[in-house]
Amino acid sequence: MMSDSVDKLMGQLSLQEKATLTSGTDMWNGHGIERLGISALKVSDGPVGVRGDRWVGTTSACTPCGTALGATWNLELINQVGVVLGQEAKSKSVDILLAPTVNLHRNPLAGRNFECFSEDPFLTGSAATAIINGIQSTGAGACIKHFVANDSEFQRHTISSQVSERVLRELYLLPFEMVIRDTDVCAVMSGYNRLNGTYCAEHDWLLNQILKQEWGFDGLVMSDWWGTMSSASAGGGLDLEMPGPAKYLGAQLAELIDAGTVEASALDEMASRILRVSERLGLLSDPASALPVRAAEQSNDLPAHRSVLRTAAEQAVVLLTNDQVEGQRVLPLAVSSLTHVAVIGPSADTASVLGGGSAAVNPHYAVSILEGLQNSLPANVKLTHEIGVHASRSAPPIDSRCLRSTAQPEKPGLDVEYFSNREFAGPPTCVEHAAQPRLVWMGPEAAPGVATKNMSVRVSGTFVARSTGTHTFALVTGGTGGRVLLDGEVVLDNYTGQQPGTAFFGLGSSETLFEVHLEQGDERSLIGEFTAYEGMDVAAFLIGHREPVFSNGIERAAKAAAEAEVAIVVVGLDQDSETEGEDRTTISLPGEQDALLRAVIAANPRTVVLVNAGSVVDLSAAQGAAAIAQTWYLGQETGNAVAAVLTGQVDASGRLPTTFGKQVKDWSSQLNYPGEFGEVLYGEELFMGYRGFDKQQIEPAFCFGHGLSYTSFECSDAELSEQTLSVEQLQEGSEFLVSAEVTNTGDRSGYHVLQCYVHRGQTDSGRPEQELCGFTKVQLSPGQSTRASIPLNVRSCAVWDQPNQSWVVRPGAFEFRLATSSRELLSTATLQVTA
Fold first, then answer.
1. Taking all residues of the chain, what is their mean pLDDT, rounded to a whole number?
2. In the chain, what are the domains?
3. 717 is catalytic
4. Residue pLDDT, tens place only, 280-316
5. Residues 810, 764: contact at Cβ < 8 Å?
6. Which residue numbers delimit the PA14 domain (predicted)?
7. From CA 179, how far away is CA 787, in angstroms rounded?
8. Alpha helices in 770-819 (DSSP H)
9. Which of 336, 390, 616, 710 has most Cβ atoms within 10 angstroms of its Cβ?
């Protein structure tokens, strides 16, 4: 519904001005109309921070990834993370944050699973609602994505997800519906994919009939970047084509209306939605005055933000196993008596804090797990570190700790000089600092006054070796040619002979490599020179580096483990192997990490395995470890949070938001993955995730909802607030509670996540055995009890009736199962629903 001010503006806008509003001007900005006091919308990527205008610009708070937030099962905490994101958006002068990602973990190989909260739609929708309300409480806007069934990266721009309406309604649409119902979210981003043959960005049934009409969504729908596929989007429900300049909307739309191809009323609908959102975000001003000037982007590393993000990271850690060794558990670490810990693995001293692609930001800082342990353990505890093996499939950017700027010697990193020509001629137009030599430019302006398609860039500084051995340097470019010099000698050059690779959304070259022996402390001048390809608005480069690994690295790691009281092995993935633009090919750990695990566990039974990955990996090689914990990508506070859990400063309180199978074929979706002939059939229907494991009676490695605590709990006296309700009462909005008495029976404070699953019995055939319908997380001191309650309603009992095109509740017995996971039942309570 239009406000008076929006209604007035609509009457003042010309056809061309209305059309202009429907397109971006560049990567991150829409169009404004200065004569009418309409400022342009500014958007920016999340979902783990706020990047701002540039990939190489200001630093950002870096939150735990989506799966990690889902693992907290703590909606109040997720809301607080949303507040941090909203405040970050305001500090970057961003109006709409492109977050959260609310697609589902349909398949374990999907490249962007780490961005998404869960495999379960109810947990996903609950988390998305919490974080959006947090973001928008600050005055910033949120944009949920990617609408809908955009659940893998294989052929992501063209694949058609073939999904029945019942499955859409009950699984893939449900998180979006929950958000629209329970928030006033500003924007929805359409998916790249097709849904049942039609591109999501022009899908009338999806965008107009369901989202806007049935659900009553009042905000705007924007495309994913370059995800508008034809002018059919104009009548198909899309309101804003991004980025600009537009290919199908914008000025082209005015021409289509003049030609009678598109109705003028469709443009009015699009423009009014954009104006309504603009009004909410304070972008409409007095036309008699000049448009407000946006404040410069700021890096605000605030103590309050650090505190929230550390708590979120702590509560995301999932303790998968914690077995006794010689009658005692290794975790939490007995800090008071500990003298020697071996910290082993490729991810121990290099903080993998986020996944790759558009979800990546430039964190204020990143604490590795080794650093976190150094910060937490007493000074008398000896820490021994061995890498053991390399895990990343390509060399990561040079660690900032190895780099010293010439202009700012006290600041780790490199100097960056931009030249407004392709020959490095004359003085640089702009000089900046970069913490690492991984720079990405998207849009017409790479730096102030520097056009991306006509520039050359030089990075320079000093490389300082942190260890002795053979160091490997790598060069990857995208939209550029480049070279690397050490002490004035060209050691890497791909100006000619580039081969295609997978980096930078598939636009990058393959790696060019150079090896050199360096002693610890050796210094080498480092220069990288890069020239953008003429006419391209996208460019990127990376100078990578691998620390030396001995040929007997696994043997050295096992020896270090044997000599220590406790061995901590950190394995996992990184933003190169989990990234937008491609799916993984396996759930196996990359490289020789399995061999490293087996050797260390054999050398020391008191081994703790930490899994630094944003989604499922095969942990069979970790069998025999004293403890295993999933630590995800935890953002800037990774090391501090993990150390707090390991040392028992906080309870282990995370629970799995997704099922960990033993092998890829365990997932029912794998039968139809990745798709063929341009289509992927969601043939598992409702039996996705734990629903499929239940149906096939497959024992997972770790079930959905699983996670251990350092204390123990009892759950008793389960009951429903109503034992009988009629279908009519439920349809009229009657709500009810399921509750139980929860007692901490252990000797330390801890968290209990009480989960509720509904089993519909004989009320509907062909349904999953059970489905999550509610949860609550409670903190209790030793001996403390509380009555934990979970609210339920008609949708807890309803199913989608395709013939009648409606949600229905069928009479019968509904069993509500209180549990600690999908496979660990505590007690039940039954609701009788009468006709």
1. 95
2. 15-39+217-282 (no CATH), 391-546 (2.60.120.260), 713-834 (2.60.40.10)
3. no
4. 999 999 888 888 999 999 999 999 999 999 999 999 9
5. yes
6. 409-561
7. 28
8. 794-797
9. 616
